[in-house]
Amino acid sequence: MPTVINKIKLCETSLSDFSIEQISGVPFYSRYFELERLFQKLVPSIDFQGSFAQPHENKTKHVIEWFYTPGDEALTSFSDLSKINNELYSDSINKRDFIINAIQMAMKTANENERNYLNCALSGIGSEESDNTTYVHDGRILFGIWGMRAKPGRKIEEIIHADVLDHRIFSINYEVNGEANLSFCTIKRKYGYKLTSSDVPQVVPVDGWEFTEWKPNIPQGSTVKNDVTFIAVCKKVNESVGPDPLPNEKKFHVYFTHEKGGALQGSVDFLKNDGDVVKQNEVPIVVADEGYEFIGWDQLPEGYEVHSNVVFKALFKKKEEIANSSFGGLIGAGNNGCLQALLNWLLLLLGLLLLLLLLWCFLGKCNFNLCGCDCDDQRQIGPQPGPNPPIQNPCNTQQASGGEEGYMGYFDMGQQTGKFTFEYNTLTVPDRIVIYDGKGTSGQVLFTYEGGTSNWDSAEIEFHNQIVTVIVKGFDPGTAWHFTVNCPNN
After folding, report:
1. Positive or negative CA dihedral for 462, 467, 473, 479?
2. How crowded is residue 30: how many other Cβ atoms within 10 Å of its Cβ?
3. How far apart (Å, rounded) are the C-alpha atoms in residues 142 and 92?
4. Is residue 263 within a helix (H) or strand (E), and if so which, with residue range?
5. How is 70-101 classified by DSSP, letter by letter?
């Protein structure tokens, strides 16, 4: 048998479970390419390679392995389709019958030998049990097993060993009920994949709306088994509750964001009057990814008195890092754990001594001159404040943050050169954004912006390195921003 090229395994069938059609004493599955040439002659309207899986005999395992050419959509068996989409199932039945009728019509003009081939091809592909071995994908019909029938007493669904589930790729769709923007709307993931926070889009409500929940459930943690749609539910902010605001009353944005390791469920952007406090029921629910643990907010939101735009960030840590930092966990590891724990405590003690020494030196400098320093020398020593240590992200990643500490990140564009769309919203408090070609700030400046956008804006940017660097500088402790580095569009 020839090598199966550019195809993946669909399933396998044991030779002992099936009655095999034969031509002149030769098993029919070994005549695949002869049948293909016959189809090209008698039934040219049928794409044989796309409609009939290719058999290959594995003599070591005594099975027939069936291969097919994958498409953009996941394979779905007729049996599964009948349970989830009756309309598509009926349409697929019509397409299957069209192929069968075309073969039967061709038999009227075929000679006896050709009719034998076509009869063998029809064996097992039109029966009710063939719903378990007939598939649909990309609008096409695929006969997974043909030229053989299950022996009496064998249940077809029990004697087929399918590999197809391992190759199925499903669409995860995101929609909005209300008024909001999503950082992305569709992704594709393999069967069995568990969605993480990076697979869930950022929901940015428009003015006057707030995000409340995902339906039918939170996407994060869901296991992919079929195409699915998650809906971000947004509702209008009820501005009529309570007394009317004073004419000059100030309102400020309260933002909630998170670092890698989890997601937020609930409203992440709302307005508060000057002097109002953040209530417990206004704080979104924190959901940690598998392997991570929520360790708190960078500042406590509940009870926070609002006097400017403010951002609260949910912090996460890997569970093994938490366990390794535990003194008890180190002791439980045996003698090596005890030694490691002792070393950790010694390092901690050394750090405290160093801190006390610096404090003593500082006091001596400013009061008693114990360090021999000039008390009038007020020059700043050490690095200037700047963005947090940069993190490398894939393209199509949205970032949301704020504060004077700024942001610096690397984005992998997936190719060396091209163009990408940069979407940004610096809200009402001005910020400065700079994008560099390459990793770091030594490359060419591709884009600069300074100001407050109030709404989303975008720019088309040409790059010449696989990595681009984005730096955001805030000028106010209450500033916040959102931006998305989309993947190349060429």
Report:
1. positive
2. 17
3. 10
4. strand 262-265
5. --SSPPEEHHHHHHH-HHHHHHHHHHHHHHHH
Q: What is the strand order of the sheet 160-162 is part of?
A: 54-58, 63-68, 8-14, 160-162
Is residue 167 within 8 Å of residue 70, measured between CB atoms?
A: yes
Say how far apart CA 78 and CA 141 lie, in whole Å.
Answer: 10
Q: Check if the beta carbon of residue 54 is closer than 8 Å to that of residue 66.
A: yes
d(CA 473, CA 57) in angstroms, rounded, equals 64
Cβ neighbours around 45 below 10 Å, total:
9
Provide, rounded to the nearest whole percent, the portion of the chain with pLDDT above 90. Answer: 17
Helix (H, G, I), strand (E, B) or coil at 338: helix
For residue 486, the SS3 value is coil
Contact 275, 308 (CB under 8 A): no
Residue 175, pLDDT > 90, answer: yes
pLDDT digits (tens, 9 = 90+) for 214-257: 988 889 888 887 788 999 999 888 644 445 555 556 888 888 88
At 31-76, the pLDDT tens digits run 888 888 999 999 998 888 888 999 988 888 888 988 888 877 777 8
Query: What are the helix (H) ranges across 299-334?
Result: 319-324, 327-331
CA distance 370 to 377: 15
Q: How far is CA 297 from CA 258, 292, 361, in A?
A: 9, 15, 34
Say if residues 481 and 472 touch (Cβ distance below 8 Å). yes
User: What radius of gyration do the chain's Cα atoms show?
Assistant: 32
Query: Are the beta carbons of 55 and 31 closer than 8 angstroms?
Result: no
Pairing of strands 457-463, 418-425: antiparallel
What is the dihedral sign for C-alpha 68, 74, 79, 81?
negative
Helix (H, G, I), strand (E, B), or coil: what is residue 174? strand
Residue 38: helix, strand or coil by DSSP?
helix
